[in-house]
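Input chain follows. Return structure tokens only.
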Amino acid sequence: MFNSGYKKAALEAAQEAGEQYQDTYDITIRHTTGLHEKKLEAVVILKQVDDYIHSLSNKPGELSKQMSRVTLKRQAFEQEVDQLQIESKKTDKISTSLAGAGAMAGAGIAAFGPTAAMAVATTFGTASTGTAIATLSGAAATNAALAWLGGGALAVGGGGMAAGEAFLALAGPVGWAIGGAAILGGGAFANHKNKKIAEEAEAQTRKIKKETENLKEIDTRVEAERKAIRPLHSGVKKILKQLEALGHRDYKKLSSEEKEMLRTLLNSSEALSERIGVKLQ
């Protein structure tokens, strides 16, 4: 059939682009979840620092004030997580509620569970509409999180993209992994000539590749943030362990060097408490 080779090559390219998008998407989700886990670990160590500082007698007032600032920032993050946990319970039945949307939607939601949604919310903070993801629930919350990772292409609560891209919008960016198969499988172009199908496939391939690059940029920022948190967490943990090993609970009994260690602990703790509240743009 005329242009059948052209069509086949174009569809294969679209399929390959979709698979590359899926790989990049999976990596980005994994790294975003890893960043969230590092923040949770930071909360644990900051609580331990708080306990240690409160156990010290005769400490200067400025140390207590600095610790209070750290505590407030930590508690703000904890409150955000608590709210997200409440909202995440409302998304447990998303797959069932969206069953009528088809297999693509079901696959998309399954790939983006509550844990990943929480990680996205604590990393990026708001949906593309400006609405805090933490205040959304159900399909809206999932769509908002997907919109962040897909460059904001999926409108929260909306119908998605233009009609020519409907099959891509069905499950949000996750659906793009279907690639070339969706062009024919969805039946949208079943009656078109080979050349038309090939041209549509090439257009979609270009868009998918662009979104893949957008995801890579997001992933780079996520990884940079995780690398910024890691040494702060390790440093706080190391110094706290050294100070606790001294066995002193009276600030006046600390040597000049030990008091300097304590100041470093608080400065590092404050920097760590600020980092866990950072929202990437």
